[in-house]
Amino acid sequence: MGHINNTPEPVVAIVVAAGSGSRLGAEVPKALVPVAGVPLLARAVTQLAAGGVTEVVVVAPAEGRQAFMDALADAPIPVLWADGGAERQHSVAHGLAMLPDLPEADAEHQVVLVHDAARAFLPADMVARVVEAVRGGADAVVPVIPVTDSVRELVDDGSTVVDRARLRAVQTPQGFRRGVIEEAHRILAETETIVTDDAAAAEYIGCTVTLVDGSRDAFKVTEPLDLVLAEALVASGGTA
Ligand code: C5P
Q1: What is the position in ligand 1's atom list of the atom closest to the CA of 15?
Q2: Which of 50, 71, 148, 226 is the most exposed place for a label (fewest CB within 10 A)?
Q3: What is the pairing mode between strands 174-177 and 79-83?
Q4: 105 alpha carbon to ligand 1 midpoint, in Å?
Q5: 207 C-alpha to ligand 1 centroid (Å)
Q6: What is the mean pLDDT of the chain?
Q7: How far is 187 from 197, CA to CA, in rounded Å?
Q8: Ligand 1 nearest atom to the CA of residue 220, by list position
Q9: What is residue 136's predicted lDDT score, i.e. its pLDDT?
């Protein structure tokens, strides 16, 4: 599909925000936790839009949906909604089911990103790198960063050192052609298989995963210390 009337092709992002976020210990669902007054979910959607995403499907708990809608009342791009599932993978599948219908040939090649709402401070240029790699022909694109800690692997009788130079930590948004990610989730559901993330889903159906540079700013807000970092990042005029 080429560019029509100079309008860039649409890029849809599925933003999963239906986890409990219990490790954060907040009183509201994690995606609604404010940083400098702005909920994580709103920050994530704003950054995705800045990086070229034209529409989002937000996957959120069915219960308490209004609070999520309020958080995105001023979103810069259209928002569709889907209900969360038991596992993250099910939440992604629910989001995929809500993607707007397109003629088959267009749908096959549409760029679809999958993003964790908890990675709220992702830089726009990182989003653009993922989109470009998919447009360039990659089936599945994963942003990664080097691992800074030394790492040991637990084995039966103790532990063994792992060569950190060969390790990469995986972030989101991960990017796919729509045909690939839809087919991957269809097969996973059919075979009742659970995989760790969407890139692994694509690999499960035989696709090659392409790595692009991620960003430290795209850290996943998980534990209380991450909120301290988040507040400091915003205060310093960082990403968001
Ligand atoms: O639990 P974890 O931090 O790995 O979750 C990653 C993302 O997946 C979060 O944004 C969370 O809201 C989302 N999630 C979901 N549905 C689930 C579990 C997690 O949307 N059942």
Answers
A1: 10
A2: 148
A3: unpaired
A4: 31
A5: 24
A6: 94
A7: 14
A8: 3
A9: 96
With residues binned 3-state (H G I as helix, E B as strand, rest as coil), the percentages for the chain, rounded to 5, are 40, 25, 40
Instruction: Tell the residue nearest (CA) to atom 20 of ligand 1.
Output: 18
Ligand 1 centroid to residue 159 C-alpha, Å? 30
| Tally: H helices and E strands in the chain | 8, 12
Rounded distance, CA 99 to CA 199, Å? Answer: 19
Determine contact, residues 43/240, Cβ cutoff 8 Å.
yes
Residue 4 has pLDDT above 50, yes or no: no
User: Coil, strand, or helix at residue 71?
Assistant: helix
Q: Are the C-beta atoms of 115 and 44 separated by less than 8 Å?
A: yes
Q: How far is CA 167 from CA 44, 97, 109, 129, 235, in A?
A: 26, 33, 31, 21, 31
Two tokens at 100?
């707007």
Atom of ligand 1 nearest to the CA of 17: 12
Residue 3: the pLDDT is 45
Testing ligand 1's pocket by substitution, the residue of 14, 15, 16, 223 carrying the most ligand atoms inside 8 A of its CB is 16
Number of C-alpha atoms within 13 angstroms, CB side, residue 147? 13
d(CA 202, CA 177): 10
